[in-house]
Amino acid sequence: FQDLFGVSMVVPLLNLHIKSLGASPTVAGIIGSLYGVMQLFSSTFVGCWSDVVGRRYSLLACILLSALGYFLLGTSTTVFLFAFSRVPVGIFKHTLSISKALLSDLVSERDRPLVIGRFNAASSVGFILGPVVGGYFTELEGGFYQAAFICASIFILNAGLVWMLPWTEENKRSSECGSISNKVTDNFSAKANHDVQFKWVTVGSMTSGSPLQSSWIQTATVLKRIKGVACSDLWDILLVRLLMSVAVLLYYSNFGLALEERFGVKPKFTGYLLSYSNTVGALAGCLLEPITRLYRHNTYMILLHSSILTCTLILLYSSALNIWTVILSSTFLAFSTTVGRTCIIDLELTFGGNQASGTLLGVGQSVTSVGRVVAPLLSGIAQEFSPCGPPSLGAGLALVAILIMNMNKPKYCGNGSVKLKNQ
């Protein structure tokens, strides 16, 4: 909650601040794109690094380096300093992914969707409240700098909370939960379990060897884990994640402009509608417990049905004849996308093996970053034909994702039972 609360105070103000520093829209766009590219390439390596050196060390490092980035942002009085301040954040702002990996280490596979859903709900609440506070700071003289310093302070507070966690007890629980994940039978999990043994060798070498040797061992282990993901058969899960993320991004890409052109609504109303959707999404995270009980903890079927609902709602929005249809589709879309995001993460961890959760979550974040790069291009091309072009294209991509899931159904649900790890 505190992480996204602090970030969402600052992010909406970035364009206004860099414009006040005299940067052209092109320069501002390049800096924003560079941040996305850094996130794209760093998420896999940082996630894998958390598997190698441990969650506590990697989470503390990411939080403190992100705090440094936001502190530098609070001192940025030139465009160069602004761009420089985004470098540590672009590389190390993967605190939420590592936190999810930590949660997956601590809880059983049966409870993982519920816990990650609550985690996403807390994050969504922070994202709802942060822009409100950030908007207040914009009305103050030097408000951006104050917001950036407050964000850095929040990250330092988070580092203190991580330091205070009872790691000894959590490691015991992690070992208990790890025994469950050892039942995985696919090749990738075998590699992951071998890497866990290698991890303890790595830790011992880090404590006994020189810093250069430990860095080399960490790098070799990270590359070995990434190779394990590349050689695994997770392509269908990652492709579904990419297609669904691009579909949702296309839905929101020209949301405000399309509502103004199609129904003549004001931007203020669009802002209220987006805030309302975020609130519904936060509430959806709290409803995963009854949903998982209803589906008997069959994550694959929940993901399939939520994707079908998402595809249908995007189609409904693209063909809406009045604003009330848009409100209806936005309400249920916020629900279906929240459930879908939680289920795709759980399916990645279940099928890939809990021992390499940081690597898997990092790869998933990289896939989502690819979607953020591709979606604006597809949206621009689709808008040449119609304001409804982007959501219509998004519905088509969601349909392809549904077909891929149906084609691979035997892989996840053998004989009607919920044995997602069996091939």
Automatic annotation (TrEMBL):
It comes from Struthio camelus australis. The chain crosses the membrane at residues 21-38, 58-84, 144-165, 234-252, 272-288, 300-317. It is a multi-pass membrane protein. The keyword Transmembrane helix applies. Belongs to the major facilitator superfamily. Residues 1-413 form the Major facilitator superfamily (MFS) profile domain. Coiled coil: none annotated. The keyword Oxidoreductase does not apply. This is Major facilitator superfamily domain-containing protein 9. One of its GO terms (molecular function) is transmembrane transporter activity. Pfam families: MFS_1 (PF07690).
